Amino acid sequence: MNPSPDRPPLRIGSTAGLLAIIPHLLGFTPENSLVVLGAKPLGRVQITFRYDLPDPPDRGTAADIAEHTAAILSGHHLTSVVMVGYGPGPLVTPVTDAVRAAADRAGLEVHDVLRVQDGRYWSYLCADPSCCPPEGVAFDAAAHPVAALARTGRSVVADRAALAATIAPLTGPVARSMRQATRRAERTAARLIARDGAGALDDRGLAAIRDAIRIYRDGGSLRPDARSAWLALVLIRLPVRDDAWERMDPAHRGVHLRLWTDVVRRAQPGYVAAPACLLAFTAWQCGEGALANIALDRALADTPGYSMPCCSASPLAMAARRRWQSCR
């Protein structure tokens, strides 16, 4: 996850404060996870990312996680790392041990390694019982003052599944209407292509992109459903898709986030990959790294192997995601 310019820097002076901010960095409260925070000199966190803990423990997967973590941190020229494992010790310890070793080999300073479970935390690096008792240290992430300062922008949801639900396909009457609108769009596109060739969609697609962005900047949305269906269809044309990507002005990233969320939720099978990748990129611009990866999941589920230049912009590279799906 990249820091968002819209979020003012927060000074975190304690372990409890760090743990309170992590759900806001991810967008959800992690469970059975390893969360990695990478920082540059002066201690400012530059990147946050998460892995599923292998269950049961698996040395090969732990080694993959360690290798990927070191590559990400070194590739971003970061100098220090904090690791937080969420879950029972038998799941957390093998992965944190592997990542610590990889960080040492990469010359990274390991600032702390923590384990969190049932409202308590333990440090793997602290043996002083006065500050790190064997029974752990109790904390309340939601009640911490840092959490109150962080409550801007997208709210924290219960878990990753709840975050995924925010861009899940719509169901019921809307889905039925979108299926009908998509069939009509397909018939229209087929007539245009038969008459003028595949490029006949390009000019109309570019106009649809411009209109959609204008509508959302004005606070509106794509209605009726025919407009969403047509937009999702024309995005199969690479010039149209890439034009939408190039129009992602960071000054209006919130507008693009709303637009592409709406299109992804309404798009029918076979037309999800392009808008999902566009959503992934604008989510990354917004600092919503977990949402970006969930959007990539939707793109690949719709069209396995789908590729797009913006998809590689996320700090969690798609190459690693194809190797093992536990990275989120």
Can you describe this structure in just a few lines?
The chain has helices at 15-26, 59-75, 89-105, 145-150, 160-165, 172-196, 200-217, 225-234, 238-246, 253-266, 273-285, 289-302, 318-323; strands spanning 33-39, 45-52, 80-86, 109-117, 120-123, 137-138.
Layout of strands and helices, then pairs:
Elements: H1 15-26, E1 33-39, E2 45-52, H2 59-75, E3 80-86, H3 89-105, E4 109-117, E5 120-123, E6 137-138, H4 145-150, H5 160-165, H6 172-196, H7 200-217, H8 225-234, H9 238-246, H10 253-266, H11 273-285, H12 289-302, H13 318-323
Parallel strand pairs: 3-4
Antiparallel strand pairs: 1-2, 1-3, 4-5, 5-6
Give a written overview of the molecule.
With about 325 residues, this protein is of the alpha+beta class. It has helices spanning about 15-25, 60-75, 90-105, 145-150, 160-165, 170-195, 200-215, 225-235, 240-245, 255-265, 275-285, 290-300, 320-325, and strands at about 35-40, 45-50, 80-85, 110-115, 120-125, 135-140. Strand 1 (about 35-40) and strand 2 (about 45-50) form a beta hairpin. Helix 2 (about 60-75) crosses helix 3 and helix 8 crosses helix 10. It is elongated, with a radius of gyration of 22 Å. The termini are close together.
Oligomeric organization of the protein chains: single chain
Silhouette: elongated
Number of domains: 2
Q: Helix segment count?
A: 13
What is the rounded Rg?
22 Å
**Euclidean distance between termini CA atoms:** 10 Å
> What spatial order of strands do you see in the largest sheet?
2-1-3-4-5-6
Percent of residues in beta strands?
Answer: 5-15%
Number of separate strands: 6
Task: Estimate the helix proportion, in percent.
Answer: 40-55%
Task: Return the structural class.
Answer: alpha+beta
Q: Overall mean pLDDT score?
A: 86
Low-confidence stretches: 309-328
